[in-house]
Amino acid sequence: MVMIPPTQLGWRHAGPPPGPAPEPAGPVEQCPPSQETLERVYEYVVARPLGGELDGAAAAGLLGLSPAEFGAAVDQLTAWGLLRTGPDQELVPVSPDVTVSRLLGPLEREIRARRLQIEEQRRRLMAFLPLFEAGRSARRGGHQVELLESLDEVRAVIAELVEQSTTEILTAQPGGGRREDVLQEAAPRDIATLRKGVEMRILYQHTARYSRGTSSYVEQVTRLGAQVRTLDDQFMRLLVFDRQAALIPVPDNPNAAALVRDPHVVAFMVESYERLWLAADPLVVDAETQAEITDDLKEAIVRLLSEGMTDAAVARRLGMSVRTCRRHVAEIMAALDAESRFQAGYLLALQNHVS
Predict the structure, then answer these.
(1) How many CB atoms lie within 10 A of CB 350?
(2) Which of left, alpha, beta for 8 (phi over 0: left; psi -120 to 50: alpha)?
(3) Which of 42, 79, 121, 138 is packed most tightly, with the most Cβ within 10 A?
């Protein structure tokens, strides 16, 4: 039997039989041994009697491996410390408990030291927070209203206020369905907010019910406890955080907003929101509810047209495009066989009264 001692970084097996030297060949890339191969070789060495000679070629054959594969597995196990060379150059298995302690102990100590460094650095950085808050208040000069002049600034303040909210967020979003990019930005943030226990109420116009993106967003947030309602008429865009801060739009600048912290003004906004909320209809994403709201929309369109408003003004007030508004008007007049918009309003009112 041939004795094959392990080397420090490799494994030697019996060489080829004597004969002419083969032609030189290029380097052959050896794939690292798989976990299964390593376990089989380790199990084989553990099961062998200590001190016995090891025939590498015979062992490889028993395990269904090539000598190169067997040698690579021995190299890897030796590098990991699961095998070592005994006094007589035999392979000796080492318990994984000993190897784990030797190899991973220093790494675990390093991780613990890094965690202590992280906590210390966090403590040092957060010590500046009171200074930042005090300085920001001083810059405002005691004013309870702050003008946010850019969209980036508005988004950053919204993200900060959402993160700081602990009890309730009230949202009023007029204008029909919301843009896809806005929903993609808002959905993960709102979902995380709901999961930490913050209550959320959202108010849309009826036309938002026909937006697929908005319906998908509503389905996600209502599943986590958010409440969503819709109104037919127009209302002011509004965000209220914990009834302590509110964001309202700035006239003639769609990218700006005013941040209000005055407790009396915020309380007035909350009261106005509650009145709108009581008049709104719960939004449930299904076809039956959408059909009911379609009737409400038609009624609102005719009512506003009867008051002398133009198609464009009606569309803007109800959060829809002018083309959609005109299509609704044509459908209503055809269904009622009305010759004028005033007559359509009268016939629709009479129809509702009879119903």
Answers:
(1) 11
(2) alpha
(3) 42
How far apart, in whole angstroms, are the C-alpha atoms of residue 69 and residue 148?
67
Q: Are residues 293 and 310 in the same domain?
A: yes
- Look at residue 105 and tell me if it is in a domain: no
Same domain for 281 and 168 = yes
Q: State the Cα–Cα distance between residues 160 and 128, nearest whole angstrom.
A: 17
State the total domains in the chain: 3
Confidence of residue 201 (pLDDT cuts 50, 70, 90): very high
Q: Give pLDDT tens digits for 215-266.
A: 888 888 988 889 999 887 788 899 999 999 999 999 889 899 999 998 899 9
In a domain, 127, yes or no: no
Among 74, 80, 75, CA closest to 95? 80
Identify whether residues 205 and 164 lie together within a single domain: yes
Element of type H or E holding 260: strand 253-260
Q: Are 67 and 56 in contact (CB under 8 A)?
A: yes
CB atoms within 10 A of CB 74: 29
Contacts of 75 (CB under 8 A, 6+ apart): 6, 9, 10, 11
Name the pTM for this structure. 0.48
**Are 257 and 250 in contact, with CB atoms under 8 Å apart?**
yes
Q: How far apart are CA 283 and CA 203, in angstroms?
A: 9
The mean of the pLDDT values for the chain is: 79
Label residues 31-64 b or e (16+ Cβ within 10 Å = b).
eebeeebbebbbebbeeeeeeeebbbebbbeebe
Give the domain range for residue 334. 289-354
Q: Give pLDDT tens digits for 39-65.
A: 999 988 888 877 666 777 888 888 889
How many Å apart are CA 203 and CA 228, to the nearest integer? 6
Return the structure tokens found at 56: 């590498």
